[in-house]
Specification:
single chain, 0% strand, mainly alpha
């Protein structure tokens, strides 16, 4: 499930890159959250699940929406107007680092063991290998866009921690509730800023939007909230390290972006970091003994 989530979210960066070619960022993300939220509501009705109706739950949905969709989705979409999808996914792979640090310094809702810290270091080392000299070459260029992705990464870390407030709900419920809340926030902004009725999106952008909403949002959010329950905040955000090489590969294949040969070497560090952060101690010993 962790690898599936990483793949679904890794593809979102290429979908966004294609979508923003003819659809402005706010409108793209407003449509993304509305379509995905609507799909999940239909799934809930089919399964006989109802969204909570109390004000407290919807306040939490609104907070989760800001942390997990409204702010980070829009920042990344805006940033990708000037930086490659591959660079965006690499910068966004810092999510587990911020999640670990927020957990360690503030929330302390999970044990921040030395093993998890080692996983963070290994994953970060792998990401740095993948970035290679390109990161240093681009320092100072498109700085605002790069900082926007980093800020989105901090939001994702906060969302992973805040998401534990929904542990008593079916995973589809917070996914649908937060996406609908996000759509309600973004739709008025889209109408005011972008005037979507004046747009003429290309077929490629529309198809990218559909893929973004159905696969990288609706399906991914259900898996995300389920993993929050089973792996915890830090473990779930570890998929960001898997997302980095997958996102780079997708961008290279479909968008023609350059892919460093060091990516495969960095992947070994990334997988080691993910294993250290997500495999329980007992299972990890069994894996080592089996090897």
């Amino acid at each position: 499930m962790l690898a599936t989530l990483a793949t679904l979210w890794a593809s979102s960066y290429s979908f966004i890159k294609i979508g923003i070619d003819t659809i402005p960022p706010i409108t793209l993300i407003a449509a993304r959250t509305l379509i995905a939220g609507g799909i999940l509501v239909l799934i809930m009705r089919w399964r006989g699940i109802r969204l909570p109706r109390d004000a407290a739950s919807w306040r939490n949905f609104a907070v989760q929406a800001c942390l997990n969709s409204v702010i980070p989705f829009t920042l990344i979409a805006w940033a990708e107007k000037s930086i490659d999808a591959g660079l965006a996914v690499i910068l966004n792979s810092m999510t587990p680092v911020f999640t670990f640090l927020i957990t360690w310094l503030w929330s302390r809702h999970e044990a921040t063991s030395l093993r998890k810290f080692a996983g963070v270091v290994l994953g970060l080392a792998g990401t740095c290998i993948i970035v290679g000299s390109q990161a240093f070459t681009h320092v100072g260029h498109e700085l605002a866009a790069q900082l926007a992705v980093v800020l989105a990464t901090v939001c994702y870390a906060g969302a992973a921690i805040f998401g534990r407030n929904f542990k008593n709900l079916d995973p589809v419920a917070p996914a649908a509730g937060s996406l609908l809340s996000g759509a309600m926030i973004l739709l008025p902004l889209s109408l005011i800023v972008d005037r979507p009725w004046t747009l003429a999106p290309s077929e490629a952008s529309i198809l990218a939007l559909v893929g973004l909403a159905v696969f990288s949002t609706a399906m991914a959010f259900v898996i995300y909230f389920r993993l929050i329950h089973t792996l915890g905040s830090v473990g779930t955000t570890a998929q960001a390290y898997l997302r980095a090489p997958i996102g780079i590969a997708i961008g290279a294949y479909f968008l023609g972006e350059s892919l460093s040969g060091a990516a495969w070497f960095g992947l070994l560090f990334i997988l080691a970091g993910v294993a250290a952060m997500t495999i329980p101690q007992g299972k990890r010993k069994a894996v080592i003994q089996a090897a």
